[in-house]
């Protein structure tokens, strides 16, 4: 599956040159990891965001979101944000920051 390279580039710009952030191809798209833990990624035209189990319900109440479900089993703690909901850089930035904030709290891999 191809992924939206434009969206990936916007994420790169938001993350800047942080040496703790790496990229890896995953889920047929690209993932951005903080110290080895996935924070956000791009799958098709959508943004994958790791929000954590405690924040899933609140994240799903926001516009353009849905459950992250690639295998028929929803993954609690992960959501997808429709690419159409990310046209504003501020909105994308909030999601990227939220994913990074969760990954920062995890021990490095």
Automatic annotation (TrEMBL):
Gene3D superfamilies, alphabetized: YgaC/TfoX-N like chaperone
Pfam families xref list: TfoX_N
SUPFAM superfamilies found in the cross-reference section: YgaC/TfoX-N like
Record-annotated TfoX N-terminal domain positions: 19-101
Name listed for the protein in its UniProt record: TfoX/Sxy family protein
Record organism: Streptomyces spongiae
The organism's taxonomic lineage, starting at the top: Bacteria, Bacillati, Actinomycetota, Actinomycetes, Kitasatosporales
């Amino acid at each position: 599956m191809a992924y939206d390279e434009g969206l990936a580039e916007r994420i790169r710009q938001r993350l800047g040159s942080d040496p703790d952030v790496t990229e890896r191809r995953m889920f047929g798209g690209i993932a951005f990891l903080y110290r080895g833990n996935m924070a956000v990624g791009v799958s098709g035209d959508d943004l994958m965001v790791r929000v954590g189990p405690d924040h899933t319900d609140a994240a799903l109440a926001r516009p353009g979101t849905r459950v992250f479900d690639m295998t028929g089993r929803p993954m609690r703690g992960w959501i997808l944000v429709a690419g159409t909901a990310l046209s504003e850089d501020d909105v994308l930035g909030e999601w990227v920051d939220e994913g990074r904030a969760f990954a920062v709290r995890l021990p490095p891999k």
